[in-house]
């Protein structure tokens, strides 16, 4: 998706590359640049999931601090030569942060917003009980001509049962199949809450 632009008070707000809304309160994109900060403020983000191993740029960190946005970093390599497989445990940890509505609104991004981001969104769709063909179609649409078969294989093989077993204190229920009907419902229980640690950068 091309970077969106909105005009507010005569100014231009540029969205990050490959920006789109996954669900109400969940967004995805490529790596945000300083010229995208104005647009990001309109999302009222609480959290960002960053899926690359490289340190977050100082300018971006200052933006997060100024806007009280929490950073969760999950260092997933994106090498293609030799190809790097998606680490299941890391994706599972990122998914636990993603489905916790206390972290919403939330932005997911890697560098291009295609492969690592696409795998995480694909696993979310499986938790939401999307049919597999629709999950893989969404991944390919966002990855474009650079889609990767190993990513499709990872999404298809990902076991969502392990996620449900890890959420001890929060129940997430997904309703409906249509884009606007699927939503996350959050219900607290009187047991100890698992601690989700923000990544140190």
TrEMBL record:
Signal peptide coordinates: none
GO molecular function per UniProt: inositol-1,5-bisdiphosphate-2,3,4,6-tetrakisphosphate 5-diphosphatase activity; inositol-5-diphosphate-1,2,3,4,6-pentakisphosphate diphosphatase activity; phosphatase activity
Domain Tyrosine specific protein phosphatases: 89-121
InterPro entries per UniProt: PFA-DSPs, Prot-tyrosine_phosphatase-like, Siw14-like, Tyr_Pase_AS, Tyr_Pase_dom, TYR_PHOSPHATASE_DUAL_dom
Transmembrane segments: none
Catalytic activity: 3,5-bis(diphospho)-1D-myo-inositol 1,2,4,6-tetrakisphosphate + H2O = 3-diphospho-1D-myo-inositol 1,2,4,5,6-pentakisphosphate + phosphate + 2 H(+); 1,5-bis(diphospho)-1D-myo-inositol 2,3,4,6-tetrakisphosphate + H2O = 1-diphospho-1D-myo-inositol 2,3,4,5,6-pentakisphosphate + phosphate + 2 H(+); 6-diphospho-1D-myo-inositol pentakisphosphate + H2O = 1D-myo-inositol hexakisphosphate + phosphate + H(+); 5-diphospho-1D-myo-inositol 1,2,3,4,6-pentakisphosphate + H2O = 1D-myo-inositol hexakisphosphate + phosphate + H(+)
GO CC annotations, alphabetized: cytoplasm
PROSITE patterns linked to this entry: TYR_PHOSPHATASE_1, TYR_PHOSPHATASE_2, TYR_PHOSPHATASE_DUAL
Pfam families in alphabetical order: Y_phosphatase2
Family: Belongs to the protein-tyrosine phosphatase family. Atypical dual-specificity phosphatase Siw14-like subfamily.
Protein name: diphosphoinositol-polyphosphate diphosphatase
Taxonomic source organism: Brassica campestris (Field mustard)
